[in-house]
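User: My instructor asked us to take a sequence, write out its structure as tokens, and then describe one feature of it. I'm not sure where to start. Here is the sequence I was given:
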Amino acid sequence: MAAPLKRCLLRRRDGREQHGVAASCLRELRDKASVILAIDKAREPITLVLAEDGTIVDDEDYFLCLPANTKFVALAKNEKWSSKSLDSGTAWLSESGDEVDSGAEKWKQLARQLKDDLSNIILMSEADLQVLIDVPHSDLAEELAQSQTKIQVLQDTLQQVLDRREEERQSRQLLELYLEALKNEDSILSKVAESETVPRKEMDVVDTGTSSAGPSAKTALSDQILAALKEKPAPELCLDSQDLEHSVSLGQSSRGQW
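Assistant: Let's start with the prediction itself. The structure tokens for your sequence are:
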């Protein structure tokens, strides 16, 4: 099944004359631009850009997403798009040469995009959506050939889309702040854990008796053992191996003194 044709408007960089062309893909549009605009083969390849801002269109999927009657400027080899080419190319908007209100032309262009395909809403920027929302109901209804009731529904929908995008942006910002807070919390917890490990190691050294204890420490430990022995009916069963060994060593040292 052949792809549907898309209506496009073509002109050269410094030309005021534009041509209506129908093409099913970007390659076909380039080929027709070369023939219609009489671009010499030696000056190919041709680059197609959007007339309104100079965006280079070199992706087939992006081309298919563009609305009908999109204006293209064909640039030959080594040619560059500039705002001057935009000024010269928009002179056709008024044959009498009168100035055109750029704000009014903007919303009309956006309205025509919606008229061609309502799904173009997803391609519009937030600024474009706001422009259409601010247009009076009567003017937009006349441009789209719809009742003011339907235009009110349309503008409400545009406002909902705009609000949803704002909510998504705020949600992303909150998520970034939350992730940053988690990183900071992990850093604080790791520092606290490191600080707690130091006194624990020192306590372990004291408990295992590996430190060099003096006579006073040995005496205090012996007093604790004696107190435990006095309170128990079978004291020899209440002491662990370490305390028993210590008691034996104390007894041997006492006999040595005698």
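For the description part of your assignment, you could build on this observation: The CA atoms of residues 3 and 24 lie 6 Å apart. Try explaining in your own words what that tells you about the chain.
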